[in-house]
Amino acid sequence: MISKGMNNHIIGVMGKKGSGKTVFVQESLKNMKRYIVVDTLHEYNGAIFYNWIDIVCFIDEVRDIDFNIIYRPLNDEDREEFFELINVINNYTLVVEEIDFYCDSHNMHPELDHLTRYGRHYNRSLIWITRNPFEVNRFLTRQSDVLVTFKQTEPRDLDYFKKYNFNKEIETLKEYEYAFWGDEQIVTNVLNKKIA
């Protein structure tokens, strides 16, 4: 069953190692009712699952009840099978740490591509996170409603960001400070962040 009050959002969070990306997303998730985090780096707390079959069984039990699932794949094969599941569930947010495991500048995982193209029809949202924005598939960045970045220093990334009108200068961001580009209502209502 799809909730009529929910909308589809695609949000990218970018920054160097230790810049604050994960904490930023963790704080935003406190306001979300149905999400699955692909937690390859073991940085999230919640109902932890190690294989996709257990996730299917759990979601089948809870049906339309809220869920907060942390998925920690044990191997590449299990991760691949999980991605076949992401377009079966409706009315939830998928959070993918290290999105560059699943897409690069030339290729994108087919199920991730499907979610990006058609998720709005099923209230499937996506928050993707990366250290390397220049290497993320441009289709994904073009489809994103909001981009959040912490301080960037890589020349290719800085050159790419010139195409966007962030609310702050990226090169001058302080430690743990971030800048936004995109739909301000998503920033305030979905991410629950104030725009400075």
Roughly what is the average pLDDT, rounded to an integer? 88
Helix and strand composition category: alpha/beta
Strand content: 15-25%
**Tell me, what's the shape?**
globular
What does the model show?
- The protein has 196 residues and is an alpha/beta fold.
- The chain is 30% helix and 20% strand.
- The protein contains 7 helices and 8 strands, in the order βαββαβαβαβαβαβα.
- Strand 5, helix 4 and strand 6 form a beta-alpha-beta unit.
- The longest helix is centred in the N-terminal third of the chain and has 11 residues, at 52-62.
- The protein is globular.
Keywords:
disordered N terminus; alpha/beta; 196 residues; eight-stranded mixed sheet; Rossmann fold
Short structural description:
With 196 residues, this protein is an alpha/beta fold.
Blueprint (SSEs and pairs):
Blueprint: E1 10-14, H1 21-29, E2 34-38, E3 47-49, H2 52-62, E4 67-71, H3 76-85, E5 92-96, H4 110-118, E6 124-130, H5 138-143, E7 146-150, H6 155-161, E8 178-182, H7 184-190
Parallel strand pairs: 1-6, 1-7, 2-4, 2-5, 3-4, 5-6
Antiparallel strand pairs: 7-8
